[in-house]
Structure formats: structure tokens, C-alpha cells
Amino acid sequence: MTEQPILVTGATGKSGRRVVRQLRASGLPVRAAARNGEQVFDWTDSGTWDAALEGTQSVYIVQIDGTKLVRPFVERAIHHGVRRLVLASGRGIDNPDYVRDEDGVLEAIQDSEAAVRESGLKWTISRPGWFAQNFSEGFFVEAIASGQLRLPGGDGAASFIDAEDIAEVVVAALTDDRHAGAVYELSGPKAVSLDEAVATISAAAGRDIEYVPLTVDEYVAELVQQGVARAEAEVFADVLEPLRAGTDEYVSDGVWRALGRPPRSFAEFASATAAEGGWRLG
């Protein structure tokens, strides 16, 4: 009898593609779903949901920020006989002062968590903090490539989490009933300031890279000068507020609890990324 596949949504994203890779390395069948993925899946087109869910046993749910689509998706998963859900959530959702939430992002994530908990299925929730990979393939990558990370981050720090660790926790939750009902807040082993992070990347990459702290007004003005709409620039500045305020400096024990080992350090992430050709010019 053919083993039922595991559905991974967001399969081309930072955590999703690593989950796909790790599952396949273990010899498990995977349905890699994304808008342009092996399995076409679009959160905004519910007509793509059933084909993705059909015949699957477990699902990794990577939602779109600010939407309440997880609840109807979970209802379709139940209809298709899915037995286990793992939800990608985020640290800070229990803290109403974590970030200004004018777009309803936190409210939507809270609704997603509630939908998973109330599903009657086996569930696990992953709550990662700031991804270390924001420096190598996300929010900060272009600035790092330019040699200057110019942000309104002050001297704030965060306990950046390696997406490889996030994926390993998710894979464990997708394949082992011992993680049912668990909420794993995920972080690195210690807080790292932006200045420290950039210095670590600079050393690993063998390049001169610097962090330039800006005020919020300076940051917004620079983005507007680059052609970003002021409202959008202000949203970007708001996203950085927890980093600036040090709200994400605290260390979580989720990797330890899920995997029985410490999380990878930022230095380990930087060394591994540089060894794979990350931050190389030309």
C-alpha cells in the first residue's frame, strides 16, 4: 500500500522548502504546494485546495499574513480525512503590545491558531521568531549585498532562529505523535544585535559589511526616495519596531523541547551560509 503524502504549503518559502527537503531525505512522500510549486496551490483561490489536500495524511500550513483563510482550509482538510496539522505561526501573538497591528495580522494569526486547536485533529503550532535567513534570502539580503544594512534598529537585538531548525521541528511534528498538542516557540540560543549580526556575516563572507542605524524618519525618507509609497515605508518601519525595542531578545526553549538539542547559533548559520556561497559577489 502506498504511503499517503505529506502536504507542505508554502513549499518554495524559507521554511517550506527546507521541510520538503528534509522529509524527502528521510524517504517520505511529499506534496510540495505553492503558487508556482510542483502542486499548484493558491491561498486566494480555494479552487486549488481540494486537489492539494486529496489523499494526504498531514499538512504543514504556512499562511498569508493578515488573512483568515486557515479556518476554511482546515474545514476542507477535515473533509479530506487529514489527520495531523502543523501550523506556522509566530512569536509575540500573545502580546498585544508586540507590534502595531493596524492590518490585523496578529488577529488573523490568532484565528488560525484557534482553528487548528478546535479542529479535532492532531495539531502542533510552530512559533518562530526572527529568521536568521532574513539576512541571506529575505528582508535584509539586498542591503547586505550592497555592503550597508541601513535600518531603524537602534541597538536592539533578537534571538534569530535558523530556518533549518524551524524545518527540523516541523518535520518532527509532522511525523511523530509525541508532538501533538504542543506549541513550540522557536529562537536561537542567544540574542544578537544587528551590529553583531552584520559583523558576524562580514567575517564569514570575507567582505566589508556595516550596519548603519537610522531614525524611523530617516528610514522612511530613504525608502520614499527609492520609490516606495510612504504608507508602505511606514509599515516596514513598524515591522522593525520589535527589533528596535528588543522585544525579541528573549530566548525560547522550543528547539530543545522538540529536538532535545540546542538551536544553531547565528555564527553557525553565517558560516554555513558563506560555505554554500551566500553573500558572494558576482
Give the termini separation: 49 Å
Q: Briefly, what CATH class of the largest domain?
A: Alpha Beta
Question: Helix/strand/pairing class, anyone?
Answer: alpha/beta
Strand order of the largest sheet: 3-2-1-4-5-6-9
The domain count comes to: 2
Strand fraction equals 15-25%
Succession of helices and strands:
EHEEHEHEHEHEEHEEHEHHHHH
Rounded to an integer in angstroms, the radius of gyration calculated over CA atoms is 19 Å
The number of helical elements comes to 12
The major beta sheet can be summarized as: 7 strands, parallel
Q: Could you report the average pLDDT, rounded to the nearest whole number?
A: 93
How much helix is in the residues?
25-40%
Record keyword descriptors for this entry:
alpha/beta, Rossmann fold, two-stranded parallel ribbon, 12 helices, 11 strands, NAD(P)-bd_dom, NAD(P)-bd_dom_sf, Ergot_Alk_Oxidoreductase
SSE diagram, text form:
Elements: E1 6-8, H1 16-25, E2 30-34, E3 39-40, H2 49-53, E4 58-62, H3 70-79, E5 84-88, H4 105-117, E6 122-128, H5 141-146, E7 148-151, E8 157-158, H6 163-175, E9 183-186, E10 192-193, H7 194-205, E11 210-213, H8 216-225, H9 230-239, H10 241-245, H11 254-259, H12 266-275
Parallel strand pairs: 1-2, 1-4, 2-3, 4-5, 5-6, 6-9, 7-11
Antiparallel strand pairs: 8-10
Helix pairs in contact: 1-6, 7-12, 8-9
